[in-house]
Amino acid sequence: RLNHRDYLLESPHRFSVADLQQMANGVHKGFLKTLIKFASQHVYHCDLCTQRSFICQICQQHDIIFPFEFDTTVRCAECKTVFHQSCQAVVKKGCPHCARRRKYQEQNVFT
């Protein structure tokens, strides 16, 4: 699928001359859309990749979410935990994972 373009996954801001030619010809966008669809389907169905998914710690639903789901998820800047955007909007007091970690650290200070 990558046609010897592994660098697109490793360094998404790096382009080859062939990529630039495809951009000029208007075909690179279609190639990238196909690549994204292929990669997404792989991630959603691969046993190893799904182990790198998240479960929203706010709603606790069992559907897995990934940080690359930009339209529906948000990521904590501090701990990098991923939540549904709709859940994060409801809970305005911050990241529950960070709150638990701070509480745990405070308890350890006093013991």
Describe what this molecule looks like in 3D.
- This protein has 111 residues and is mostly helical.
- It folds into 2 domains: 7-50; 54-111.
- It is 50% helix and 5% strand.
- It has 6 helices and 2 strands, in the order ααααββαα.
- The chain has a two-stranded antiparallel ribbon with strand order 1-2.
- The longest helix is centred in the first third of the chain and has 18 residues, at 28-45.
- It is elongated and about 65 Å long.
- The chain starts with 6 loop residues before the first helix and ends with a helix.
- The model has no long low-confidence stretch (mean pLDDT 88).
- This is Phorbol-ester/DAG-type domain-containing protein.
- GO terms for molecular function: zinc ion binding.
- Pfam families: RH_dom.
In total, the number of strands is 2
Helix share, percent: 40-55%
Task: Tell me about the largest β-sheet.
Answer: 2 strands, antiparallel
| CA radius of gyration | 19 Å
| Residue share in β-strands | 5-15%
- Assembly state (oligomeric): single chain
- One letter per element, helices H and strands E, the order comes to HHHHEEHH
Lateral strand order in the biggest sheet: 1-2
Ends distance: 55 Å
Mean pLDDT: 88
Gross morphology: elongated
Protein name: Phorbol-ester/DAG-type domain-containing protein
Keywords: Metal-binding, Repeat, Zinc, Zinc-finger
Organism: Macaca mulatta (Rhesus macaque)
InterPro entries: DEF8, PKC_DAG/PE, RH_dom
